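[step 3/7] fold_predict: job queued, chain A
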Amino acid sequence: MAQFSAPEDHLDKVSNNASNYLFPVEPGTPNLLAGTMGELRSNHFHSGIDVRTNGRIGVPILSAQQGYVSRISISTGGYGNALYITHPNGHTTVYGHLDRFEKRIADFVRKEQYRKKSFDINLYLKPGTFDVARGDTVAFSGNSGGSSGPHLHFDIRDKNNEALNPLLFNFGEVVDNTPPVVRKIALRTMDINSRINDQFGRFEFYVTEVDGNYKLPYPILASGTIGVELLGYDRLDNSRSQCGINLIEMYAGNDRIFKQEIDKVNFGDTRNILTLMDYTTLKTSGERFNKLYIDDGNILSYYGGSTGKGMITVKAEDIPIRIALKDAYGNESFVNLSLKASEPAKEVVAMTSANKLLSYKVIENILEVTSKRELGDSIVAYFGKNIEYAANTYSGKNQHVFLFDLRKKLPDSIRAGNQIINTHFKDMIPSGIAYKYYSDLMDINFSKNSLYDTVFLRVQYKNKDREVFSIGDSIYPINSSLTITLKPKGNYSERFSVYRNTGRYFQYMGGSWANGKITFSTREFGDFVLLEDTNAPSIIKMAVNGAAARFKIRDDLSGISYYEATINGEWLLMNYDYKTNMIWAERKDSKVPLKGDLSVKVVDYAGNENIYQEKIP
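[step 4/7] structure written:
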């Protein structure tokens, strides 16, 4: 087999005969990959590489090195059908989204599924059960679990179960001479006295490319403490996929003030990606901006070798900024921009005009209120029975801007001229401690790990067509679940459950009733309602005969909770692919046809059930 070499400057990061790992899909054939380690996914870091199979299912998957199968996992989501192989050097390779396992393994797994009477299964094995040699076919590629298309997810993990970067392991099948790509730079004010182009807030700028490098073609006026964010991705040769950037460094003048290097992923830290990205932008636009500063609540271990936390203080002198990006193969890109020191102006020329007469938004710890000039140059803030008058902080384009530090006081409402807006602020919830909020409408329990940073809790109750409990803002990410008890004013049976209104559909949250109150858990703020699901799931027959039993199952509200099937009263294994809503039978013995009384039951989360029955001749 052809021999390949890895970039020499990265080989010192791996050990234990790294070059002996075999590429698990068609070794010796170039592969474009669909994803790399360290990619910023919506709620986790990508822990390995996604190996393309060119849309094919059933491509042989080879063991990357000798070892033994130490774990087999089958689940509806996640990696779907997955295989774990432990090697003599202590590493474990992981093969996910498989269609099926090699026959010996498949037979063993099926027997265990029948023994446990469960489709989802997690088996831990000892050496000697399934020993494998380098290059043995252990499975076949597929699209199972949370996959969005046929491919192989491939991890290499160390003895501490931390995922290492597979691209540092001498896989010449992946060719990469293409440097990372940059699309935008965002700048944000980090305190109430900071300004960008004389304004407070967060502002995005498209970069221009010159000979493979990027720049902002004009200086940015700045004062105070500024944070930089970057929207970009890595690209492999001849591939459209947007992959992760492994190394980002930022220099202010000659000082390296920020370094982020993702060369391994700790699975216990993966949700903390929400502190690395700009979460508000992720929720509103879907764009994953990488913060080039270490924000409050960020406890990730990807930073080191720099002074400070990446925040830039602009005083009297201009500051040149240089950002260096490097992928696993050493390809580099650079971004250059300049922060021009400028005293904030009271009148801002280049300012986007607000649409509403009076509006507000929360930016970190600051409440920004915007009003039209016709409403006057001051506003009134109400704090319970107390009131305070505030002059405008700055103005521009027929509007005034007012800034409040929410850490000092939470205004109930704001008035400008004849316009009043209610803020619905109820409490300031600190992070890092257990905290309880009580009211006539709801109780909310925050554990000490619930929040990444201080939350200024807004609560609102509406009752038009139905009771709506608005809790918090989507701009705040939640680490570990909150426990919420709703105290509805209406009369509800215990068949009603809590749902979160996502705008497109209602997400089932469940809940348990006691004394007219319902308690549930959530990892997202939002609008919560009480709904009753009275419709049973649907079961649509696709094929039923001696060789197969296939059905499509759906539920219109709460979702599929579980399903089960029997043939002549004995448990029948049914596979499930939620992406296609398909379940299909897998016989315990492929030589024995399905015959007799078939029964399929599907139950939703509200407890509604539907049963399909047929006699197979």
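[step 5/7] annotate
The chain is about 5% helix and 45% strand.
The radius of gyration is 28 Å.
exit 0
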